[in-house]
Each structure stands twice: as structure tokens, then as C-alpha cells.
Amino acid sequence: MDTNRKQQLRQAYKMAPTYYGVIQIENKRNHKIYLDTAANLHNRWAFYQLNLNKDFYRNTPLQADWDAQAGEDFEYTVLWKKETTDVLNMRQTLKDLKAKWYRDLQPFDDRGYNRRPKDWEESND
């Protein structure tokens, strides 16, 4: 690839809109889900695959199932996204999003791979 083409691709990448949002990884065999939020959704599935293949989530049920299934039958979905230009406090926004989606989908125990937050109130169940 010539230098001019590389420059064009870099510029296009820099100009592309960036999205933050909520993602879900579902084990299609047992239907357990893992929820997370991300400040930048670009290449997020590749990020999770790399980390799971490198045993980053060791000693967790998600890692155990990933290893047992050799990464097969897992599906990545972006549940919600929005352009990052609309955010003033990304950290708080992601925290609030995660709490909302935890309440809605409850990805804990038999339903999912997420750990129940320590400050989770019984009224959230």
C-alpha cells in the first residue's frame, strides 16, 4: 500500500464518529450474558476475544465457558450506542448506563456472567 493511501485511511479513521455504549456477549449454549459499557465501541469485540483467548478473565465463569467451548457459540451485540460528542462526563455516563442495563437484564448468577455489584440493593432485583 502506498504512503498516500495510508495517509487517506488514517485521516478517514480519525474523522469517523466515535460511539460509546452498552455491549452484550451471549453464550448461545446456555444463554448466559455478560454486559459491559465502553467509551469507544470500535473494535470492541476483537478486544474481548483477544483478552478471553489470553486468559485475562481467569477464575471467572465467563473464562471457563469460553475455554470449554474454544470461543465457539458466543455472540457479541451492541445493545445501545450514541456518539461520544454528546457526553460531558463519560465516566459517570458509563456508570449510569451500566446500572440501568443491570437493572433491566440482571446478568447475574444463573442469568449471566457479571458479578452483582456490592452496592446492589435488593430493590433492584
Structure explained in plain terms:
The structure is a single chain. With 125 residues, this protein is α+β, with helices and mostly antiparallel strands. It has a single domain, classed as GIY-YIG endonuclease (3-Layer(aba) Sandwich), CATH 3.40.1440.10. The chain has 4 helices and 3 strands, in the order αββααβα. The relative contact order is 0.20. The model has no long low-confidence stretch (mean pLDDT 91).
Task: Give the helix/strand layout.
Layout: H1 3-15, E1 19-27, E2 33-38, H2 44-53, H3 61-68, E3 74-83, H4 90-105
Notable traits:
125 residues; alpha+beta; GIY-YIG endonuclease; 3-stranded antiparallel beta sheet; flat; GIY-YIG nuclease family protein; GIY-YIG_endonuc_sf
Multimerization status:
single chain
Number of domains: 1
Radius of gyration over alpha carbons? 17 Å
The CATH class label is: Alpha Beta
Average pLDDT across residues? Answer: 91
SSE succession: HEEHHEH
Q: Treating each run of at least 4 consecutive H or I residues as one helix, how many helices?
A: 4
Structural class: alpha+beta
Low-confidence stretches: none
Task: Give the CA-CA distance, first to last residue.
Answer: 54 Å
Q: What characteristic shape results from the CA principal axes?
A: flat
Total E-strand runs: 3
Second rung of CATH, namely the architecture: 3-Layer(aba) Sandwich
CATH homologous superfamily caption: GIY-YIG endonuclease
The CATH topology annotation reads as GIY-YIG endonuclease
| Largest pleated sheet | 3 strands, antiparallel
Q: Which strands sit side by side, in order, in the main sheet?
A: 2-1-3
Percentage beta strand: 15-25%
Organism: Lactiplantibacillus daowaiensis
InterPro entries: GIY-YIG_endonuc_sf (IPR035901)
Protein name: GIY-YIG nuclease family protein
